[in-house]
What we know:
CATH superfamily of the largest domain: K homology (KH) domain
Shape: globular
Oligomer: single chain
Strand order of the largest sheet: 1-2-3
Number of domains: 2
Protein name: OsmC family protein
Organism: Streptomyces citrinus
CATH architecture of the largest domain: 2-Layer Sandwich
CATH topology of the largest domain: GMP Synthetase, Chain A, domain 3
Distance between the termini: 20 Å
Number of strands: 7
Order of helices and strands: EEEHEEHHEE
Structural class: alpha+beta
Largest sheet: 3 strands, antiparallel
Amino acid sequence: MADYRIETVRNGERDWTARNDRGAEVRMAPADSAAAQPSFTPVELLLAALGGCGGLVVDRTARTVPHDDLRITVESVSRPEDDGRVGAVRISYEMDLPEGDTAAAQALERGIRLTHDTYCTVSRTVEHGARIEVSGPDGTQLFLGG
């Protein structure tokens, strides 16, 4: 049995919707597809997953620090030599901490480090890679990598 399951269905040319078993949906299309907006690109969803996972884990790892105004920005940086992959991901945690409250700053920094060192499944998977198993409509394995 899978830990998570997402079904992705075609709405039209270069326009797809991903759904989970709880009924949430997200639309995916290229950024230049005017007819399929608003939507996320697949890479934007990867970045959103990194930011969302980081935020959900920081909610647990930095509970002692009020962080309602925490903003997480995730950016991808790619170059031609990255061969069609995201070359680097930059994650920034931004928040105004109380002036002179070193304990709060240290607790938040510890929570962020724990998030990416230990607890954020998405961040750890991107960093270390995952096995990819692809099968076709008849069940034949078409690709195995990772």
